[in-house]
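User: I'm preparing a small set of examples for a lab meeting where we compare how different chains pack in three dimensions. I only have the primary sequence for this one, and I'd like the structure in token form so I can line it up with the others. Please keep the answer compact; I'll paste it straight into my notes.
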Amino acid sequence: MRTYVYVDGFNLYYRALKGGPYKWLNLRTLISSLLLPENDIEVLRYFTARVAGRSDPDEPRRQQLYLNALNTLPGVTVHFGRFLTKTKFRPLVVAGGGVGSFVEVHDTEEKGSDVNLAAHLLNDGWRGRYDVAVVVSQDTDLVEPIRMVRDEIRKPVGLIWCDGGAVNGRLERVASFVRHITPKRLADAQFATPIMGRNGHLIYKPASW
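Assistant: Understood. Below is the structure token output for the 209-residue chain.
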């Protein structure tokens, strides 16, 4: 079965990878371990945004190393949203539930990945490019595009749940099937280090991550 996979990179990172030892993740290996042998992953679309490194200057370098590693995998395409940073005034919390003075803070939002994922999921479906779609995300904004693919395009859409908790009921109702990421599956799906990049240079896992 022709299978297309749609990975919400930041949702996966914050739900399953942040703070853990498994960030050097081979996505094809992980997703294949969660699907049936007849699922032939033709395309894996990875949706992310370039990090700025404001709080961690080394973060952009680590991200690029990981993107270089992903680009060694067959069928992987990377789609970029963007970070929107602006200042906002927020109230301080005070004892008793009242509102204290306001402070100005930097507010950073990742923009575009969920919309890009939904657009490609629908476009690939209408064009008949896949027999099965698989979405790696816990973002409830994706309920409607998943439902449209399942009910209107008549293609099954699997959902891969990232954090080990209970599946959101709205997403579960529109998904054709649900699979769960576990720490063991993450551990078993790590890239080697080093790996050979497409340009012939070795890619090493970042020493600290």
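A couple of notes for your slides: The first strand starts at residue 2 and ends at 8. Helices lie at 9-17, 27-34, 59-70, 113-126, 143-151, 169-174, 183-187.

User: Perfect, thanks.
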